[in-house]
Amino acid sequence: MKNNQVITQIFIVALLALLSGCANRGIYVSTSPPPEASGPSQPIVEALSCISRSKALAKTRFAIAVHSDGTGKTNYVSEGSTGAFLPQGTTASYVSESVLLAGGMPQNYYELNTEMAIRKFGTNEMNEALARMQTKAPPDYVLSTSFTALDFLGGPTLDVHYNGLGPEFAARGASLEVMAEIYRPGDRTIVAMSSMNRRVYYQEAGFTIDKFFSNILVTGGVTYTDQQRLQEGTRDTVALSIADIVSRFDKVPSQCRRMVENIMESGKKTVDKN
């Protein structure tokens, strides 16, 4: 009988704690953490900086094209979903950032609405001035990037119970592929291409109970999930594809090229191991 009373008291205390948390939802007891500056991972930044220090891409203009999502995958069921698994055209800004870090001159050809508005509301003299500026600085190359594949991977599932008690475990993943290509404007000859693959993983582990204790049924469970970032993780994938493709320019020192190759090789070993 005492066991029943103890279990009942524990249940009541847990219920009151849950309700009190709901009641105080509008009361903030701590300040939110400040925003943090973000960027590609340090090894990729160092490889791009190596290219920049060599001046191999100095005064080389790259027209950055609109980044496209060719996966056709959308998401409408997950919590916090926006309708797409991957960032869309804004990924082109990652390309511009990488070209800047490598010492090149990126030209924004993915956000044209602002300049079109300036031309629309400006005078003929302004249109002519903008046209002359554009003619004086034509791009040497066009840099185009896209998401070409997003495949969801299977994994192990464990659900074992004995006498109403037991663990649960599940693991899943996704494989993302990014393509980058450089071509010359005018004749549109493709100079180089690069393909990068990145995998992200999801794990869920828990413990459930469905058991009688002295004629009292106790049910419930505890679950922990660990999901690696997919959208934010695309930044490194795009940056590395740009580092790979610009490192092939003739003037890029071999040591910078080796830095990029080492990053790619370490990533390949990680994928193979997993």
List the helices and strands and how they pair.
Blueprint (H helix, E strand, L loop, with lengths): L1 H22 L18 H13 L6 E4 L3 E2 L22 H10 L3 E4 L4 H9 L2 H13 L4 E13 L3 E3 L5 E19 L6 E24 L2 E12 L6 H13 L7 H20 L1
Parallel strand pairs: 1-3, 1-4, 2-4
Antiparallel strand pairs: 4-6, 5-6, 6-7, 7-8
Helix pairs in contact: 2-3, 2-7, 3-6
Essential attributes:
274 residues; elongated; 7 helices; alpha/beta; 8-stranded mixed beta sheet
Characterise the protein shown here:
Strands 1, 2, 3, 4, 5, 6, 7 and 8 form an eight-stranded mixed beta sheet that branches. Strand 5 and strand 6 form a beta hairpin. With 274 residues, the chain is an alpha/beta fold. The chain is elongated and about 85 Å long. It has seven helices and eight strands, in the order H-H-E-E-H-E-H-H-E-E-E-E-E-H-H. Helix 2 crosses helix 3, helix 2 packs antiparallel against helix 7 and helix 3 crosses helix 6.
Overall strand count: 8
Q: What's the story with the biggest beta sheet?
A: 8 strands, mixed
Percent of sequence in beta strands: 25-35%
Number of helices: 7
Average pLDDT across residues? Answer: 84
Q: How helical, in percent, are the residues?
A: 25-40%
| Rg computed from alpha carbons, rounded to a whole number of angstroms | 27 Å
Structural class given helices, strands, pairing?
Answer: alpha/beta
Distance between the termini: 52 Å
